[in-house]
Structures are given as structure tokens and as C-alpha cells.
Amino acid sequence: MKLLKIVSAVMVATTLGAAVVVATPGVTADAKAKKSLKAFPKSLRLTWYHYEKNDNGKFTYSKLTFTAKRLTMKWAGWGTTKASTDKYVLHQYNPAKKLPKGKDSWIFAYKAGKSTKMGGWNTTKRAMTAKDALSSYKVVTAKVNGKKVKVLHAKNLSSLPVDIPYYYTSKQLTKQTNPKGYNYGNAYGAQK
Questions:
Q1: Does 46 fall in a domain?
Q2: Per-residue model confidence (pLDDT) at position 184
């Protein structure tokens, strides 16, 4: 009887030990979660222009301006009748520290391959990951009239695959690549 109790105790201890070992990697992975970016990548730090028709049928320019820690968005295209401007401040999220209470203008950003994913500051750590990002920006090169130019692909991740406006470094390039002010579709962006 004593032998049965000892064997049972050893089995319980072994089983619990295995359960602790199985649970440990998840806890360690959470503790090593990635910090968000302190500053926007240098490739984004420009003023970018977009050209299209707004809801009134008027041709308009929209503008994104990135600095090291700020993003200013002036949108005047599809879904609007007059321009609106939003200003955001990049803050680094560190999962090892207490989550500070953010403001409406706070955003976080992660590098995801060649793209930079961004999202609004949240009240829970669980929602501060690259998976919860609302938009993605990627700088690529395209040929316009035989010359290579930088193009910013802006993706609204919640509306994919439709909402992917292109931005260029000058108003002239923007209008040249989208002279009819198409909103989004096959005839949009730099032509090869």
C-alpha cells in the first residue's frame, strides 16, 4: 500500500513537472515580445502626395508627412467632400514595462519585412501587436517615363484588398501617374 502511494506521488509530481515545463515557453515568449519602433524608418520620412477625385468629383491632393516621430495626414480624396487633417505621435511600446495610458493622437509601429505597420494606442497589451495594426506603409520603386521613382504604398489593413492608394514625392508625379483621378483599381498607379 505504501509503495502504491509513493508511486502515485511520483507520477503526480512528474505530471505536474511536465505541465510546468510545457507552460514555461509560452510565458518566456510573452516576456520576450517585440518592442515597437522608437522612430519611423528613414525611407518614410518625406512628404508624400496622392491625387484623386473626392466625393464632389473634384480633383484633389492628399498628403502624408512623416518625421522621425510624427505623422501628419491630410486626406481630401474618396469618401470626403472637404479635406481633413489628423496628426499623430509615434510612441514606443515595450511589453516588459507597464502600459502607459495613451492619448488619441498616439500610435505604435512595427517593422514587418519591408513594410511598416501602424496602429492606434490601446488600453490593453494584447492589442499592441503588429497583428493589430490598422495600416501598413511600404516604399518601393517604380518606373515613370523611364525614370525610377519612389512610391509609397499605403494599405488600410481593415479593408484589404481594395484600399491601397499610392503616394509620390511630388504633386507633379502624383498627377502624372493618375491623371484621371481614379480611386482604386487596375488603372491606378505607375504604369510600366
A1: yes
A2: 60
Is residue 114 over pLDDT 50? yes
Q: Specify the pTM.
A: 0.76
pLDDT score at 159: 67
pLDDT score of 3: 44
3-class SS string, the chain: CHHHHHHHHHHHHHHHHHHHHHHHHHHHHHHCCCCCCCCCCHHHCCEEEEEEECCCCCEEEEEEEECCCEEEEEECCCCCCCCEEEEEEECCCCCCCCCCCCCCCEEEEEEECCEEEEEECCCCHHHCCHHHCCEEEEEEEEEECCEEEEEEEEEEHHHCCCCCCEEECCHHHHHHHCCCCCCCCCCCCCCC
The reply to whether 86 and 111 lie within a common domain is yes
Q: Say if residue 27 is in the same domain as residue 106.
A: no
Range of the domain at 138: 42-177
Asked if residue 24 belongs to a domain, the reply is yes
